[in-house]
Amino acid sequence: MSDPPSRLDLLQFARRVVVQQATAALRQIDGWIADEERREAERRRGEEMRPPPPEWLVQYGLNRANVDAVHRGDCWAAAKSGRCRPVTREQALDALRHAVSACTFCRPDTELGVLE
């Protein structure tokens, strides 16, 4: 029959258990950090590869045939409509000259120098 473990033996055993659990927890946290760093790098890479926003947009009507309005490329109203297509500066000017209304929020006619 063996002697019961001493208090010192029990404390050393408890220390080994805590070290083992802490090592496992650190390994898990390190994995989470690596995953987050990878996601952040992918997000940055995606932003770098994204083409620049268009300078000008035309908004089409519900039937996609009529042009309803001209917008600046960063207009929030154009983003909400979902019916906009990018155009060149000349195409935006041409649309404004042909009585297509300018967005009342971003006022592309002012920036393009077209007075109504």
How does this structure look, described?
- The chain has 4 helices and 4 strands, in the order αββαβαβα.
- The protein is an alpha+beta fold and 116 residues long.
- A 4-stranded mixed β-sheet has the order 3-1-2-4.
- A hairpin with a 6-residue loop joins β1 (56-60) and β2 (67-72).
Give the SSE map.
Blueprint: H1 7-49, E1 56-60, E2 67-72, H2 76-81, E3 84-87, H3 89-97, E4 101-102, H4 108-112
Parallel strand pairs: 2-4
Antiparallel strand pairs: 1-2, 1-3
Topology order in helix (H) and strand (E) letters: HEEHEHEH
Shape: rod-shaped
| Measured distance between first and last alpha carbons | 104 Å
Which ranges are low-confidence, i.e. pLDDT below 50, for 5 or more consecutive residues? none
Number of helices: 4
Query: In percent, how much strand structure appears in the residues?
Result: 5-15%
Going by helix content, strand content and strand pairing, the class is: alpha+beta
Q: What Rg do the Cα atoms give?
A: 32 Å
Average pLDDT metric:
91
Total number of β-strand segments? Answer: 4
Numbering strands along the chain, what is their spatial order in the largest sheet?
A: 3-1-2-4
Largest sheet: 4 strands, mixed
Helix content: 40-55%
Oligomer designation: single chain
